Amino acid sequence: MRILLTGAKGQIGRCLKDRLPEEWELIASDSKTLDITEAHNVSSMVKTFEPDIIVNAAAYTQVDQAETEAARAFAINATGTLNLANAAKAIDARLIHLSTDMVFDGRQSMPITEATAPDPVNVYGKSKLAGELLALNAHVDTTIIRTAWVFSEYGHNFVRTILTTALKQQTIAVVADQVSCPTYAGDVAEAIIQMIHMHHVRGLWHFCGQNIQTKAEFAQHILHLAAQQDPRFASVQIEAVQTADYPAAATRPAYAALSDQALRQKLPQPIPDTPLARIITQLLPTIES
Ligand SMILES: NC(=O)c1ccc[n+]([C@@H]2O[C@H](COP(=O)([O-])OP(=O)(O)OC[C@H]3O[C@@H](n4cnc5c(N)ncnc54)[C@H](OP(=O)(O)O)[C@@H]3O)[C@@H](O)[C@H]2O)c1
């Protein structure tokens, strides 16, 4: 199996690289070795390497910054994805692409299935939805996996932010009216590997962690587990606040928890959530006080 992975230095990219079978031939590209906005370079790398599968883990993921950098967000998340879909189509390769719960408007109150119509409320969500549609329309052999609130031992994420902030202040304000499903990037990587083996799986799928939580509940859970490993976290409090009182550049969907039961029923092996405590153990030595 030959795999071209883009965004290999991101959270999901790194977790996937850690887990891909060693016998598979891999080009793990990052933004320096393959900028997915450069159609010619994408096409020539794909034609030269001839991967069986392209996994696109590259994305513009700065949700607030996207509000003032819409052109850049669309260039990466929409045009970049189209470039990969076109290159995959040219050599009859499969494209596995990642997307987000932020394609939804947040008005739901039950876990959102693949049948729900997307209606993004911010530039990032709009750029990701544009990428989904371009990829699905450009190439029949496209698989899209939407996930949510991704964290890992790598890069910037909410778990790292809470741990870092907790060593600087005794109270952390976190919104209590945004709901989704925190998802470990390594579990997404496991799902991708299983989907690589499932040749009949095409189209749009959801995959996420199995705990539906508010951001404040997630933060509380992180601190509770961290306190079991380091007493400095025991006295830190989460102050539950409302989104309206915690202004951010981008509007976020209030409810964005995904239902991933359709995919989980098809996966050959179950993927239980990796314990959050394990990721915290890996992160703690890297957190500066
Ligand atoms: N993070 C989340 O909470 C979350 C939630 C739901 C869905 N997702 C989706 O999951 C996927 C992976 O997310 P992640 O958290 O792993 O993202 P990440 O950690 O931000 O990594 C994204 C990677 O994409 C690379 N990249 C950016 N522009 C590029 C370009 N023009 N060409 C090639 N590479 C480029 C970045 O490299 P540089 O750093 O060098 O720019 C970065 O390494 C994305 O599709 C994202 O939309 C993420």
In this structure, how is the largest beta sheet organized? 6 strands, parallel
The total strand number stands at: 12
The number of helical runs is 9
The class by helix and strand makeup works out as alpha/beta
As laid out across the biggest beta sheet, the strand order is: 2-1-3-4-5-10
Using the CA coordinates, give the radius of gyration. Answer: 19 Å
- Beta-strand fraction estimate: 15-25%
Name the ligand types: NADP nicotinamide-adenine-dinucleotide phosphate
Tell me the quaternary state.
single chain
| SSE string | EHEHEHEHEEHEEEHEEHEHH
What are the low-pLDDT stretches, counting only 5+ consecutive residues below 50? none
* General form: globular
Textual characterization of the structure:
37% of the residues lie in helices and 17% in strands. With 289 residues, it is α/β, with parallel strands linked by helices. Helix 2 runs parallel beside helix 3 (70-90), helix 3 (70-90) packs parallel to helix 4 and helix 5 (158-166) packs across helix 7 (215-227). It starts with a strand and ends in a 6-residue tail after the last helix. The model has no long low-confidence stretch (mean pLDDT 97). The structure holds NADP nicotinamide-adenine-dinucleotide phosphate (NAP). Residues 6-7, 9-13, 30-31, 34-37, 57-61, 76, 80, 98, 100-101, 128, 147-150, 155, 185 line the site of NADP nicotinamide-adenine-dinucleotide phosphate.
